[in-house]
Amino acid sequence: MDTIGIGFYFEDIHEGFKFRTLGRSVTEADIANFLGATGITEVLFTNLDYLQNHTDFPARLVPGAQVFAVAEGLVMTASIQETGVAFLGMDLNIEGPVFANDTLHVEVEVIEARRTSKRPDRALVRTRNTVKKQDGKTVMVYTPLRMMKCRTDGQA
Asked: How far apart are CA 102 and CA 13, in angstroms?
């Protein structure tokens, strides 16, 4: 019996391969739980009076770290369950704010894909992950490098 939901193996992708994840709304409860779990207590996220009376933001902000975490959750369930081995690093840029009740999705493009030199059953895959809100505005772009499983060792 096949298992549904397993991610892509190296052989399933190539440079230029693109996909889009499902969306997920970030609720007030999500923000409160994230702040409590991480200890992020910056007044921008914890003090609504400060936010309303001392900033230009129109609504409750979502921390950038939480936007990244939500994006990674969307990417993981869409593409790397049981095939991802390691997260090796990334560059990350925040392009705009995310507010409570915004819905996020991630558009992923493979920009590098190659077998490792030491383990032919492993590959290095770098993607450009563009996080967008429901209105199509880009809010974050990051380029993770991951080690992925291969189905074969490349020896034909």
From this structure: 30
Backbone angles phi, psi at 97, to 5 degrees: -80, 155
Q: What is the DSSP string of 24-70?
A: EE--HHHHHHHHHHHT---HHHH-HHHHHHHSS-SSPBPPHHHHHHH
With residue 108 as reference, give the H or E element that holds it.
strand 103-115
Per-residue model confidence as pLDDT tens digits over 62-115: 999 999 999 999 999 989 999 999 999 999 999 999 999 999 999 999 999 999
Residues found in the chain: 156
| Cβ neighbour number for residue 34 with a 10 Å cutoff | 18
- The structure's pTM equals 0.94
Alpha-carbon separation of residue 65 from 69, 97, 107, 124, 132 (angstroms)? 6, 12, 18, 24, 15
| Contact assessment for residue 94 and residue 139, using Cβ atoms and an 8 Å cutoff | yes
Can you read off the two tokens belonging to residue 53?
A: 């009376």
Q: How far apart are CA 95 and CA 145, in angstroms?
A: 20
Q: Which residues of 103-128 are buried (b: 16+ CB within 10 A; e: fewer)?
A: ebbbbbebeebebeeeeeebbbbbbb
